[in-house]
Amino acid sequence: MTAIEQSEARPRGTRLPRRARRNQLLGAAQEVFVAQGYHAAAMDDIAERAGVSKPVLYQHFPGKLDLYLALLDQHCESLLQAVRTALASTTDNGQRVAATMDAYFAYVEDEGGAFRLVFESDLTNEPAVRDRVDKVSLDCAKAVSGVIAEDTDIPSDQAMLLAVGLCGMAQITARYWLGAGQKLPRDAAAKLVSALSWRGIAGFPMHSASGGGG
Question: What pTM did the predictor assign?
Answer without folding.
Answer: 0.86
